[in-house]
Every structure is written in C-alpha cells, then in structure tokens.
Amino acid sequence: MINKIRLMLGMVLLITACKSFSQDIIVLQNGEEIQAIVKEVGLDIIKYNRFDNQGGPVYSIEKSKVFMIKYQNGTKDVFTQQSKPQEVVKPKTDTVVTSKQTVKVVKQPPQYLTYKLGVKLNNTRLENNAVRRLYANYPEATALFNSGAGFHGIASTLSWLEIGMLFLTGYAQNHLELVSPTATKESVTKRGLTIIGCMMVVGVTCNISGHSKKRKSVEVYNDAVKKEFEKQ
Q1: Residue 72 near residue 25, CB atoms below 8 Å
Q2: What is the DSSP string of 51-87?
Q3: How far is CA 130 from CA 35, 63, 111, 120, 133, in A?
Q4: Which of 12, 14, 36, 107 is the most buried (most CB within 10 A)?
C-alpha cells in the first residue's frame, strides 16, 4: 500500500515538473519575447497567461504586434499582414493543445523581410540585434549578416580616419619643419590627399560589400521561411 502511494505521488510530481517547464514563446514584431501560456488565438487578439504567473490575470495583445508564436510542443505560427489583398492564399489549419484547452490555429503565410539600406520588416528598419534574433535558427543568414556588419564597421572606421587625415594634412601644411627640411605645402597636400583617396576607395568597397552581404542574408532567410511554410 505504501509503495502504491509513493508511486502515485511520484507520478503527480513528474507531471507537475513537466508542466512547469512547458511554455509558449510569443515573439513580437520588434524582436521582444514573452514567455507565456497561450489561451486563445482570435482574429485580432491573442490571450495568454504569463508563464511565471499562470494562475494570474489573462493578458491580451493585438495580433498585428506579434511576429510569431513558438508553442511548447515544438510547432510555431508566423503571423503577417497581407500586402497584396488580391492574392488569396488558402490557409492551413492545425490543432495545438495547450495546458488548458485545445485551440484551432490558422496557419498564415510567413512574413518576409526586405532590404533597402537596412533590413526591414513591414517597412520598418530593424536594429542589428533584432535581426540576429530573427536569424537565430538560420545560421547561413546569420553568417552573411554578421559579415556585412563587419564590412560596414570597417567603412565607418575609415570615414573617421579620413576626417582625421584631412585635419592632419592641414596642420602639416602650417608646420612643414615637422615633416622634413625639404617639404613644401604642395608635397604635403599631395601626400595627404593620396592617403585620403586610398581610404575612400577601401571604405566605399567595404560599404558596398556590407550591403551586398546583408541583402543576401535577407534572401536566404526568406527562402528558408518559405520552404518551412510549404512543408506545413
């Protein structure tokens, strides 16, 4: 009898422990993540409990502010606003079981990124950290984006060095004795402009390469998201 009671208590503790580590992740459009237990996915509103206060109040958030929900069972929903109303996409449905109830979830087409002097979502430019969070499960896109960010960092550094070299050239023109006994304003100017020109060429090249890498990362991400949706 005692062994049966111990077995029942152990099962209850095991179920409680498993439940306590099960959570849904609500990813907002700005990259912020909310640990939650999703209660209901409506047409315009998503209702949820905070994971750290599951017995507390039920919160509501507009679906337009949500980028994706990662469910505790491994599935996920990506929400998007249709940019072309004339294109009708047949929705896919799936049944997701939460800790409280069964919710009918509408599978919507993925939300694609765009690139124009920066990675954009719904025509809003994303900060680098927000982009990296979106790319978290896509290593190829992440590597391309980080490479592009590195090129842009070099270009930014060179632009500051160009300004410093310009001031240094002006100073040397007024203190020729510090350069060499035979230095002239013309020779100092020519040397300074040559160095500045080289920096500009390298800087422009790095800037173009950075944009190319980041644009390619958006293409890789969009292709991967599209394939995932088609497999659902």
Answers
A1: no
A2: GGGTTSPPEEEEGGGEEEEE-TTS-EEE----S-TT-
A3: 17, 19, 15, 10, 5
A4: 36
Q: Give yes or no for residue 101 having a pLDDT over 70.
A: no
Q: Where are the domains of the chain?
A: 22-111, 119-231
Say what the pTM is.
0.50
**In this structure, what token pair is assigned to residue 55?**
């017995």
d(CA 168, CA 166): 5
158 three-class SS? helix
Please give the distance of CA 74 from its chain centroid, rounded to a whole number: 20
Considering just the CA atoms, what is the radius of gyration of the chain in Å? 28
Among residues 28, 26, 30, 29, the alpha carbon closest in space to that of 39 is found at 26
Poorest-pLDDT segment among 27-31, 66-70, 92-96: 92-96
Tens-digit pLDDT profile for residues 170-224: 888 888 777 787 888 888 888 889 999 999 999 999 999 999 999 999 999 999 8
- Please, how many CA atoms are within 13 Å of residue 10, restricted to the half-sphere of its CB? 6
Element at 103 (helix H, strand E): strand 102-107
What are the residues whose beta carbons fall under 8 Å from the beta carbon of 48, sequence distance 6 or more? 24, 26, 34, 36, 37, 38, 39, 58, 59, 61
Structural tokens at position 105: 């979830």
